[in-house]
Amino acid sequence: MEMLKFSLYELLPDLPPIEVLDVGANTLHGQRPPYLDLVLAGRARVTGFEPDLRGCVQLNHDYGRPHRFFPQFIGNGERAKFYETNTPFTGSLYPPNQPLLASFTDLAEVTALQRVHEVTTVRLDDVADIEDVDLIKIDIQGGELNAFRGAEKTLAAAVVIQTEAEFVELYQGQPLFADIDAHLRSRGFWFHDFHDFGSRTLKPLRSPNAAGADQGMNQKLWTDAIYFKHPFRLEAVPDVKLLKLAVLLHDLYGSYDFVHFFLQAADARRGEQVAPRYRERLTAAN
């Protein structure tokens, strides 16, 4: 279904802003974080972590107050090794799996190991600046599960998660999608969708897109996975969180059926009629 052009905040003007936690906040050139439209509308505040100091400084400059970005490595709170590569976006707390990467087109070329640093990781639950979280976006090249393991309180507060996950070991010893999925489901989250897939062809074949970059064939290597609070276990989810969940699913992901479901749940608690007005707005938009 085509994404609709209106924000759910139009029906919920008094709802507080979305609190975004972005771990690995630096994006590839030209990419937009999924929450950017909410930020531009003044409807979201971002707390981000980007260990690349230059990238972190740029993020603070670009976003300005009240958003804030910190140059910290998020993990389990222990000392670790950071494997710096020739591309800022592919460095990891896991070593690049060079034999596998070299088998696929255009991967080894952007993950060449440059040097190894000793670093101290920080648990999300130990960061005083995180007051509340609605949306977690995380992309730290295989380190996502370790970050979640240090974020029990943060996960309990969040209603939506967008996490990168790999299907094969691009980095040696990294957790894969199945590991992340099991952990999040055990914390009361419901798998919802995959958002884009990363694919490459096995060498020596290529499958270029219009821009000439290899787009892969059938092998899926990585993705962003979308989760939200289990829709049939909402007893502990506060009313405001239900409404923020609906906003995120509408404005970011176009999951209009679940938006209506969560609005109905909120209406039943609050004695309001937002869901019928939303249904009318959907009908008018189509």
Per-chain topology:
Elements: E1 18-23, H1 36-40, E2 44-49, H2 53-63, E3 68-70, E4 73-74, E5 79-85, H3 98-101, E6 113-122, E7 135-138, H4 144-149, H5 152-157, E8 160-166, H6 177-186, E9 189-198, E10 222-229, H7 239-251, H8 256-270, H9 274-285
Parallel strand pairs: 1-2, 1-7, 2-3, 4-6, 7-8
Antiparallel strand pairs: 5-6, 8-10, 9-10
Helix pairs in contact: 7-8, 8-9
Question: How would you describe the overall organization of this protein?
Answer:
The protein has 286 residues and is an alpha/beta fold. It folds into two domains: 17-93 and 116-199 and 221-254, Vaccinia Virus protein VP39 (Rossmann fold), CATH 3.40.50; 256-286, no CATH class. The protein is built from nine helices and ten strands. It has helices at 36-40, 53-63, 98-101, 144-149, 152-157, 177-186, 239-251, 256-270, 274-285; strands spanning 18-23, 44-49, 68-70, 73-74, 79-85, 113-122, 135-138, 160-166, 189-198, 222-229. The strands form two sheets. The chain has a seven-stranded mixed sheet with strand order 3-2-1-7-8-10-9, sandwiched between helices. It has a three-stranded mixed sheet with strand order 4-6-5, with no helix packed on it. The longest helix is centred in the C-terminal third of the chain and has 15 residues, at 256-270. The radius of gyration is 20 Å and the shape is globular.
